[in-house]
Amino acid sequence: MARSLRNPVLALAGIFQSARLVQQLAREGRTDNEALRASIQSILALDAPDVETVYGGARGVHLGLELLSTRLSTRLSGKTQPSDMEMARYVVALVQLEGGLRRRPAMLDAIRQGIDTARAQMKFFQNDAPAEDVHPLLMEKLAELYSQTISTLTPRIMVSGEHGHLNNPAIAAKVRATLLAGIRSAVLWRQLGGRRWQLLFARGKIARAAVELLTA
What pLDDT, in 10s, does the model give residues 84-96? Predict the structure, then answer.
């Protein structure tokens, strides 16, 4: 697989992973902690030297790569489930919001400043949470940043799920922070040459590249 394809597929896997995590949180109130941690940490890795470092290697987006390898192939065969359609709606919405954000440099600067502030503040709490978890305070700060910036753009992402979960402040914060992670991956995907038409016309190539990354 060409290096030029490897990096965009990793970033696209980051988008799909965030969409799936949001879906799990909203529907089930829980999710894969390792995947969630990798996605949230990708927000803080604004100055990473390469794409793999953003996610802590391909393993950090393992869930997203699995989704690319299976769901895009399923789409090609014409077999889709309601949950797949819902997740696809989140993916498309994240990509659309990235387009709107790209036209708002002041908001991009505000997001970067907010992330830098959160990263600096969390240095004082880095030993307070288990290694496999994300500190609740970081979730809250990133969720607040999302609410103050991305959620003011249109079209807004309407998350579907159980009211009991969506009304839980801790879960709601995780959902918003994870949506911010999805935007971070969408920005990166665009920077690497990703385009929406590829989701329609290059699905097979993307799915095969994801399989290669999973088995490497």
Answer: 899 999 999 999 9
